[in-house]
Specification:
- The protein has 224 residues and is α/β, with parallel strands linked by helices.
- The chain has one domain (4-222): Rossmann fold (3-Layer(aba) Sandwich).
- Helix content is 37%, strand content 22%.
- It has helices at residues 41-52, 71-80, 83-100, 113-124, 165-177, 205-222, and strands at 4-10, 13-20, 29-33, 56-60, 106-111, 128-134, 152-157, 182-187.
- It has an eight-stranded mixed sheet with strand order 1-2-4-3-5-6-7-8, with helices on both faces.
- Strand 1 and strand 2 form a beta hairpin.
- The two termini are 23 Å apart.
Length: 224
């Protein structure tokens, strides 16, 4: 079940994205936000996996056609991300996804950089009713947690040098301090990007499978 590349309106311009739809043609909408590599095959595969589970998934291309396959280039794209433009892209993606969703409530999930942007997107639009943050990090993205409209699931790695367990616990505390709901899991003995099955150095199948199970259950509960 392969998705297709689409274009959607973003504040007067257009942004590309990868849209994957279920066999039923419409399911609860989930925004899937890229790692620092860009809109690469892994992220498209994640969107396809959501579609296979009955969701409509849209992965916006926040790098506008650029991708990386080694860390130096990825780091440069990561730091060069225009946050104001990303905000426009995310708002446009949410509006486009809403047209293809079977429910008014939408979900957002992101990985690495995308985890932080998933939280950010959830503060931009109250239709994001559930957010999953996989080890999210971006120094220039500062979500206002008081604007979250729904609960958060945080999935982190014990050996993560980017988003350490202390950082994960701080995110958990900050969201709760803002009066919002979060459930946090820190997977033991795994590293940053443990969910990415194309990252052979970090991927951990047992933790990834458990995180996927939790993610699906979380969205099914909160996007009714």
């Amino acid at each position: 079940m392969a998705g297709t590349m689409v274009k959607f309106a973003a504040n007067g311009g257009q942004t590309d994205g990868y849209l994957a739809t279920p066999a039923s043609s419409k399911g609860p909408g989930v925004l899937v936000i890229q790692e620092w590599w860009g809109l690469v095959g892994h992220i498209k595969n994640v969107a396809d996996r959501f579609a296979a589970e009955g969701f409509t998934a849209l992965a916006p291309d926040l790098y506008h056609g650029k991708t990386a396959n080694e860390p130096d280039t990825a780091g440069k794209l990561f730091m060069a991300l225009n946050i104001a433009q990303a905000e426009k892209d995310l708002k446009g993606a949410i509006a486009h996804l809403a047209q293809h969703s079977s429910t008014p409530k939408l979900g957002a999930v992101g990985f690495c950089m995308g985890g932080q942007l998933a939280l950010f997107s959830a503060t931009l639009n109250p239709s994001i009713a559930a957010t999953v943050n996989f080890y999210g990090v971006h120094p220039n993205v500062k979500p206002d947690y008081s604007k979250l409209a729904g609960p958060v699931l945080g999935l982190f790695a014990e050996k993560d040098a980017f988003v350490t367990p202390d950082v994960a616990r701080q995110v958990d505390a900050d969201i709760k301090k803002a009066g919002k709901q979060i459930e946090t899991h820190i997977y033991p003995n795994v590293d940053h990007a443990f969910f990415n099955d194309e990252n052979k150095g970090a991927y951990n199948k047992a933790s990834a499978d458990d995180a996927w199970r939790r993610t699906l259950a979380f969205f099914r509960t909160n996007l009714k």
